[in-house]
Amino acid sequence: MKDIRRALSRLIADTGTNGYRRWYTPGLFETHVAGMLPKELRVIAPPPKKEDNYNCFIYALGLHRRHDVLRESKGFIYSAFLETLIAKGELAIARKPVVGGMILYRNPRRYGKGFAHAGVVQKDGSIVSKWSWGPLIRHAVFDVPQSYGSDIIHVGHVSPGKAYRLWKAYGEVAGRH
Fold first, then answer.
1. Residue 170, class by beta-carbon neighbours within 10 Å (0-12 exposed, 13-18 middle, 19+ buried)?
2. Spatial separation of the C-alpha atoms in residues 174 and 91, rounded to whole Å
3. What pLDDT does 8 receive?
4. Which stretches in the chain have pLDDT values below 50?
5. What local confidence, expressed as pLDDT, does residue 71 receive?
6. Which pLDDT belongs to residue 129?
7. Element (H, E) at 116
């Protein structure tokens, strides 16, 4: 497991002469990076074009199809938003994985108490998550870059409609501009 995590961290951080741009640019990802991913991972979707791109938190909340959210947030919802929703009881921490619920990753050494990454739990126990501005990937719980951390928290399912209402209510914390 450590070897795949180290390899993923290197792959995402340094993807050749065009650097990180190959990770998040449609066309460049498929041509130069997709074939380098470990066989344990399955690319569900390549990176979206720049104006439609978004981070893992937007995906995990089911807000990635809302163009108003993408436009207003510039594709980013920050960890502080999820932390606020948990603290206010809007998102419930689950004792075990919930199908359709979120898994949140922490890397305390790098990010303190903040979340580094989020994904959605699937029926088979795998996770689907958006890796930075790159692709949407199906993977095992810990088949993620080391930088995402090893501390995980499970959160119950939240519908995209509720997530949108929460985003509107707590938008300043979410990173709404």
1. middle
2. 14
3. 83
4. 15, 17, 177
5. 93
6. 98
7. strand 115-121
The answer to whether residues 61 and 150 touch, using CB atoms and an 8 Å cutoff, is no
| Polymer length in residues for the chain | 177
Distance CA 85, CA 87 (A): 6
Give the pairing of strands 42-45 and 136-139.
antiparallel
With a CB cutoff of 8 Å and minimum separation 6, the contacts of 146 are 2, 5, 6, 8, 9, 107
Degrees (nearest 5) of the Cα angle 13, 112, 15? 5
* C-alpha–C-alpha distance, residues 150 and 134, integer Å: 21
Distance of CA 25 to the CA centre of its chain: 17
At 67-85, the pLDDT tens digits run: 999 999 999 999 999 999 9
Per-residue pLDDT tens digits for 121-139: 999 999 999 998 899 999 9
Compute the radius of gyration of the chain from its Cα atoms: 15
Give the contacts of 76 (CB within 8 A, at least 6 positions apart).
Answer: 54, 55, 57, 58, 175
Side-chain half-sphere exposure of 51, counting CA atoms within 13 A? 2
Query: Considering only CA atoms, which of 84, 138, 140 is closest in space to residue 115?
Result: 84
